[in-house]
Amino acid sequence: MKKHIKKYFITGLLATIPITLTLYILGTFIGVMDKVLKYVPPKFHPDTYLPFHVPGLGLIATVVLIFVVGVLTQSFLGKKVVSIGEWIVYKIPLVRNIYTGIKQLVDAIFMHNSKNFKRVVMVEYPRRRLWVIAFVTGVSEGEVQSKTKIKTINVFVPTTPNPTSGFYILVPEKDIVNLDMTVEDAFKLIISGGILTPPEQVGDNNTNNAAQTDAEIAESGHF
């Protein structure tokens, strides 16, 4: 009897925890977005004209606000305002460092010309025969490339379970193993610590000569 009770209880947890957490996260997110309405003048506030509060209006208002900011930023005057604002931010030491780092990361993720960030690879790190999932961010250029004798690739190695932090590494192009998994699947794999393994996909990417045999590794002298 105890065995069956435990089995049913665990089954119930597996069924209720995901939906409960999902609803909680959505409710929290919508609640935070609804706080945006506090800054709307009363004559423009939806609650002034509605008999009851409608959850989610803050989310709609936030989306509209982001869209309007995007339109204004694209204009000549908007670009000038942004330029002046960034000039002021860059004059503040601590704020400048935080803003610059976040801006560069956001630009790398969302800019259309940063397609290489969408590429998932596997590299040996922090030593031979230890592998990590990484994202290609571009081809090494400038001084960091001129100081090396071989062509290197910029990769970002995220940490588990927080993939927003990690390491920037210059890896020889020949030592990179291309993967066919999507960025979303790679993030699931990293965040879960390997628990959520995506199904294997067959693509054009081939595992190159980075996957060396033990004999080759021993002969090269890299351990």
Q: How would you describe this protein?
A:
This protein has 223 residues and is of the alpha+beta class. The chain has a domain at 115-210: SH3 type barrels, CATH 2.30.30. It is 47% helix and 14% strand. It is built from 7 helices and 5 strands; from the N terminus they run H-H-H-H-E-E-H-E-E-E-H-H. It has a 5-stranded antiparallel beta sheet, covered by helices on one side. The longest helix is centred in the N-terminal third of the chain and has 33 residues, at 2-34. The radius of gyration is 24 Å and the shape is flat.
Low-confidence stretches: 206-223
- What is the straight-line distance between the termini? 54 Å
Shape: flat
Order of helices and strands: HHHHEEHEEEHH
CATH topology term of the domain at 115-210: SH3 type barrels
Radius of gyration: 24 Å
Q: Please summarize the sheet with the most strands.
A: 5 strands, antiparallel
Helicity range: 40-55%
Number of strands: 5
Decide which structural class fits the backbone.
alpha+beta
Physical arrangement of strands within the biggest beta sheet: 4-3-2-1-5
Number of helices: 7
Q: Assign the CATH architecture of the domain at 115-210.
A: Roll
The proportion of strand residues reads 5-15%
Give the integer mean of the pLDDT values: 78
Q: What is the level 1 CATH name of the domain at 115-210?
A: Mainly Beta
